[in-house]
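Contributing new complexes? Match this layout with MRU.
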Amino acid sequence: MTTIYPVVWSNNKVLLIDQTCLPSQYTLVEISRYEDMAKAIKTMIVRGAPAIGVATAYGMYLGAREINTKERETFLKQLEEVAEILRQTRPTAVNLFWAISRMLKIAYETIGTVEEIKNTLLETAEKINAEDLQTCQDIGKNSLQIIPPNPDKLSILTHCNAGALATAGYGTALGVIRSVWTAGRLKRVYADETRPRLQGAKLTAWECVQEKIPVTVISDNMAAHCMQKGLIDLVVVGADRIAANGDAANKIGTYGVAVMAKMHNIPFYVAAPLSTVDYSLKNGDLIPIEERDPSELYQIGDSVIYPDGVDYYNPAFDVTPAKLITGIITEQKTVKPEELISLKPELSYH
Ligand code: MRU
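Output block (do not edit by hand):
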């Protein structure tokens, strides 16, 4: 079990692990206002689709708490404004929009005073946090059924960080790896460094080190070589948004890893909660892809590493087509991408 919880409600405020400071510093940031939560999401103090969803849910409560009226209609109108500010933070991770819809729905459906609606919103945020932890553990448990019998111990490659830090705790892709490790079936994790923000080198590697899971960090351009040399038995990654047909958006570079895995006949799995599936989108072409500030590319620390006069392009995510995905591991079961539609919940918050 992991003890890394990136979003915690404590003493009437939210404590976030500042993921921009890891691995050199473990710092907690206190958030009491929804505008600060929006900023924390935008600047990636909290990141990873499910963790963003949990943080957003608390952000909605913090916003609700600040609304100073007893009038239900005025309250709901101002809550919509809070939702809009939170929606403007990061466009790709659908869990953010999922959490906002769920929080708004409960606010509209709660019969009672404004104070009672506020209490229900806090309870719902707490519930979303607890549910996500359980969901990740279920994903980990389900993954044990798809682990090939050979070799006895597997080397698993992952990209970015889909770990405890990216969820309520435990992780999706790294949750799978944790479960395989606990089952005694893991030889080693290969963690892609994950340019430009280095979530693999900084966060996945840090989580593995905390739990003494053997980890080798490679730069992104080494993955094909490792596969060719027979060092990788399986790939598992997380997702930020999965379309109804199984096309999956994840951290930039994931698509390349999937192409390489196909070339080398290595199983390529996506591990994600159903809250990451956007059934309203027919395919991955419709997934909005965030573009971030180019300084993430051209600057390392205080040093500018590119010459003057170049142009930049910094998409934060790419879409892996369903045909490259061996299976999607969810909290319910593992399905082929084309079977994802069979898991569509009756009540959807997308
Ligand atoms: O830009 P980030 O760090 O928020 O991107 C995170 C990822 O791409 C993760 O792989 C994804 O959110 C899945 S997290 C369980």
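Reviewers usually confirm one structural detail per submission. For this one: Residues 7-138 form a domain with the Four Helix Bundle (Hemerythrin (Met), subunit A) fold (CATH 1.20.120.420).
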